[in-house]
Amino acid sequence: MPDIYKQAAESLFSFQNRVGGLKALCLAQNSSPSATYALSTAVMDNYENLKSIKGITCDNSMNYFHQIVLLHEFQTNGFPNKRLRLSKETRNTISFLKANVDLEPLKAMKPAAIFKPVANRYFRIFQKTNITEFAAALKELNITYTQTQFKNVVVLSELPPSAKLTQFGEFQSIGSCLPVLCFQSIVNKGTLLDLCAAPGSKSLQASESFTVTANELDKRRFNILKKRCEPQNITCINADAFDTIDRIRSNQFDLILLDPTCSSSGTYNQDKALALKLNVGKEKDLEKLVTFQKTILLKALTKGAERGIKYVSYSTCSINDEENEQVVEFVLEQNKKWKLVNVLEEWEVRGLRHKECVRCEEPGNGFFVAVFQRK
Questions:
Q1: InterPro entries of this UniProt entry (predicted)?
Q2: What digits encode the pLDDT tens for the residues 4-55?
Q3: Among the three residues 171, 191, 209, which one is the final residue of a domain in this structure?
Q4: Which of 1, 200, 298, 366 has a CA between 20 and 30 Å from the CA of residue 323?
Q5: Distance CA 144, CA 155 (A)
Q6: What's phi and psi for 316, nearest 5 deg?
Q7: What are the catalytic residues?
Q8: Are 348 and 260 in the same domain?
Q9: What average pLDDT does the structure give for the chain?
Q10: Total domains present in the chain
Q11: Both 238 and 311 in a single domain?
Q12: Has 177 been labeled as part of a binding site?
């Protein structure tokens, strides 16, 4: 059993220092990434209570987050058992807390104040999963689930306290699932290029139906992508998306999945809400983003038409019209060789002006998807 307390502290510390999104940082951990993410989000749910405890080292250091994580564990389950394989840093931090911190206020807090969810706990079940075994594992953890309209996507009542569900699937928001679900609704096999792929959830989801090549420019994010995807026989490329588009050979791919950098305005109460708690700000110039989105989508469509691509999806985790419908309208005006496909007709929330597109407008789970078909 890895020291997830240290891993969660490392992830929160890096998140506070703007190294990356909390989920991506947790997924980059060597062992039990899902358990690390579950613990990290639970700690942040309880952060206002934890940071008020007198005696902790309030300097936003790695040591500070280690203390915060272990205080949360103490409040919910007691300090970790000494028989566990705990790192030297975790053992030292426990000793510090016992000697220097008044733990009584934590004992007096009501559990209801702790398990306040950041967002719905969507879980994508692997196609190979035995549902009976999955249900039994949930029962053992005292967790229930609600079925969504999609067979392999459910909502868990809470995050599991350990990594016992990783063999059955992975946590992935319903919005993030939509681009691949859109493709799967119109084709059931083929070759797919995921252009801006890290941290890899969509590539992994797509690999259950398609032969996938995943591209990522940023070296740190590429390492996360490679770690997650190569074991699933996904080809990973560390390159600029524009260069990768230029290198596409004739009939090399059937589909392109494009989920470029966006404002993330649809994920307000996930990483953004956590960032606000830690005073992490990241302003993005919307006009520059939109220019980039238009440019890369137009490039994918132009080169795609020349190289035999049949479908291209464009998605964002933004709710802004400027990044979604307006981008679609721009590229359709510029390139007449493509048309929109009416996807996921059973999905009720459609595009603002183009009903072929789909939107997700759940709080903290905003998403937009458009699928283009070559004429």
A1: MeTrfase_RsmB-F_NOP2_cat, MeTrfase_RsmB-F_NOP2_dom, RCMT, SAM-dependent_MTases_sf
A2: 899 999 989 888 876 666 777 787 777 777 778 888 888 887 888 888 888 8
A3: 171
A4: 200
A5: 8
A6: -145, 160
A7: 317
A8: yes
A9: 87
A10: 3
A11: yes
A12: no
End of a domain among 171, 190, 210?
171
Tell me which residue range forms the domain holding 250.
Answer: 174-374
CA–CA distance, 12 with 2 (Å, rounded to integer): 17
pLDDT-derived band of residue 112, with 50, 70 and 90 as boundaries?
A: very low
**158 annotated ligand-binding residue:** no
- Considering the domain architecture, whether residues 194 and 210 belong to the same structural domain is answered as yes
Measured in degrees and rounded to the nearest 5, phi and psi for residue 370 equal: -125, 140
Was 202 annotated as part of a binding site?
A: yes
Residues 6 or more apart whose CB falls under 8 angstroms from that of 96 comprise 67
Judgement on whether residues 354 and 210 belong to the same structural domain of the protein:
yes
**One domain, residues 191 and 309:** yes
Burial 78-110 (b: 16+ CB within 10 A, else e): ebbeeeeebeebbeebbebbeeebeeeebeeee
Say whether 271 counts as a known binding-site residue: no
Confirm whether residue 351 is marked as ligand binding.
Answer: no
Give mean pLDDT, residues 261-281: 63
Q: Identify the CATH number of the domain in which residue 132 sits.
A: 3.30.70
CATH number at residue 193: 3.40.50.150
Structure tokens at 34: 């899902």
**Reported pTM:** 0.72
209 annotated to bind ligand:
no
CA separation for the pair 142, 136 (Å, rounded)? 10
Residue 227 shares a structural domain with residue 206:
yes
Same domain, 348 and 253: yes
234's tokens? 């996904």
